[in-house]
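Study this:
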Amino acid sequence: MAQPEKVGHGPEHVEDAKSIEKGAPPAYSNLTALAHAAATEKAYTPFQAVQVYWQATLWCLFMCMGALLWGYDSQVGGGLLSVPSFRRDFGFQSGGQGDYILTAQWQSAFNSVSSVGGMFGGLSLGYVSDKLGRRGAVAVCCIVSITGIFIQFFTYPHRNAQLVIGKLINGFSLGMYVSGASSYCAEVSPLALRGITTSSVNLWIVLGQLMSNGVIEGTGNWTSAYAYRLPFALQWIFPVLLLIGLPFAPESPWWLVRKGRKDDARNILVRLSNGTSNVDLQLQQIQDTIALEDSFAANSTYADCFRGVNGRRTMIACMVFVLQQAAGVVFVLGYSTYFFELAGFADNNAFRLGVGVTGIGVAGNLINFYTVNKVGRRSMFNWTMFASTIVLFLIGFLAIPSNNQSAKWAMASFTIIYNFIYQLGLGPLGYVIFAEVSSAKLRSKTVGIGILVNSLCGMVMNIVIPYLVTPNEANLGGKVGFIFGGLCAIGTLWGYLYIPETKNRTVDELDTMFERRIPPRKFGSYTIVEEDMSTEEVASS
């Protein structure tokens, strides 16, 4: 394959050095070299990039495998509550002879404790990843995960607290898995594949949910303890596979350069492209981008994530997950089986349809691999947010006639439509945007904070929504669509005002645009100046 051509100079916007705020650190001087490297990266199409960087693509998909456990755990927790043998071994018999019941406090504990662990796991990723590298952080995840699964598997009946501890420990690893996968993909992938690999984090999550639903359906009617122990044990497969593959996985070249291991970084770059790309230019781009970021801020602590321009970047990284929850994903997808039962389907068929809804989500994720580069992050996120608003209001209106069977059928249908829309845009793009808007220096910390917010919002929704939906509480049922429809409408406006277009932008370009405070809606059309700005020019300004 011929090497992509470099583009020449010819900026459309001229950024005067005098526009830099007084008191700001000196700007990095070699913008032209960065522009040349960016032009080389942008010359690849996704198909060409896969041909050249096929090893990088496969390793990114491999490192995302841990995200499958996030999706699996989120589904298996609620699914086991419907398994009779689980309720028997961890609940009590109502009236001494009725069905077995799991108390509300234990239900809440089993459903939310993984999210608590995920918050601390995501937050700790920045420290662990910066110390041990991206591979080292995943290795820690695997060991912690294996330990948490071990505790769950060997929990004997009525030792509920032990099961909670096991889920808490495993949840810690899940938060690190998702954060680490996003950081790794953003740093190892070439520009043309960055959106695809980072959005594949969400695909693995949905595949985990699909796998969980299938396992629970297959073992749920068993009368032995293995009806719930086997779903726990199957989780061991994935951390073991990761541990086997980690010694062969390439480390992030960005991390290696920051640690002063430039020769190792160069070897990794040669390996990732099979020696067919301009490795010297790529290495120089990484070094120059790091120098550029160092000129903006000397430190890289968690506190720096909330200062100045980085505070704005962290806000966006967190808000994409807040908006996911505001879009009602826990409400619609968590109660899809309930809507199918309302429509008149038998319990078994309703559960199978719930599995089908997850399958529709997988299809939406796969289509996103095309639209993430073709349409862009900002446009797809905002349009799917708007479409979700419409669907949520329709579910709310259809819930008003309580005994209309046609309306119940329509509500069930809209859960399928909603999941396709969500997984086409909001779901995967959250993981793309929060990994891309963070600076390379603070990426592991920023994505960890994003996962903390994601876990916190998910936990809150899992606690609040049952009180809104269940008959003996607010009993709103599908009318909750009005609440989330309103929140989604507000989120659509926020997304238009604050979410930037990061498609086809290199790390240094995003750094420059954020530092120049370019309005988010102009990120897609803004042209970075391809000129040298000497330190003397900046100083004299």
Summary: The domain at 301-524 is CATH 1.20.1250.20 (Growth Hormone; Chain: A;). The first helix runs from residue 31 to 42. The chain is about 70% helix and 0% strand. Residues 1-29, 531-541 have pLDDT under 50 and may be disordered.
